[in-house]
Amino acid sequence: MTRPRRLPRALTLGVLAVTVTAALTACSATADLPGTLNRAVNTRGLTVATDQRYGPDARNVLDVYAPPSARNAPIVLFVHGGSWQGGDKAIHRFVGESLARAGYVTGVMNYRLAPQNRYPAFVQDAASALRWLRDNGGKFGGDPDVLFMTGHSAGAFNAVEAVDNERWLREAGVPIRAVRGVIGIAGPYSYDFRQFDSRVAFPEGSTPDQVMPDRHVRRDAPPHLLLVAANDTTVYPQNALSLEAALRRAGVPVTRTVLPRLNHVTIIAAVARPLTFLGGTRQQMIDFIEKNRPR
Fold this sequence. Notes:
alpha/beta; 9 helices
């Protein structure tokens, strides 16, 4: 009997890229998650605490990924996408693993979904999850006064709105000075939701002026990094342009970076360490956190 030949590394990574991209594209709260994506990463050596409860709803849970022997590490909260109607923290294990390997205590959260739960429920959940991480991140070696928020697609909306609208952090009891930065990945920050299926995520009769993050920017918001996929046909680049303009008008530091070759799915897949060859998402995030953490 002959041993099977090992696939060349380039081919292996190519197959992995296709598999992960397909899994992300098809993601839903009921997807079969133990395979595909989760086989792409290994959390050996990390501290992992799953299903930590930050609120009363069944979806108010988050997973924590922490580097070994972390001490005063930045704390990062990631919010998944899914048009506010789907998605799950479980298929974003690769985000937690990737950022923990970079040295950050990372929370990957679930939140209440539409249409049963409409704005601002999912934004309030983001703020509440950040409060939980601030209160409990020290147990994992995190610094409660060095918080970062990030999210992909609808999750980027949640992250930006939770931080930029002064109401949500205040109501959750998170000191605004503790949040050192926000990273939005392909987020729909400025659009007329009434023309799209995602309108079910917002209150009947509401308008973009009432709910869009670019209308709610506070002047003392922390620095922002807005990552845009050059080939994104799901969330149009105008969203980031509009938010960037609003942040600049308020005097908030902002960097908008367009990542070549990436689309709406691969821009988040590229956070996975085995898939960084897809594009620069992970390195952009790390560079931003390192620039804005205190020394």
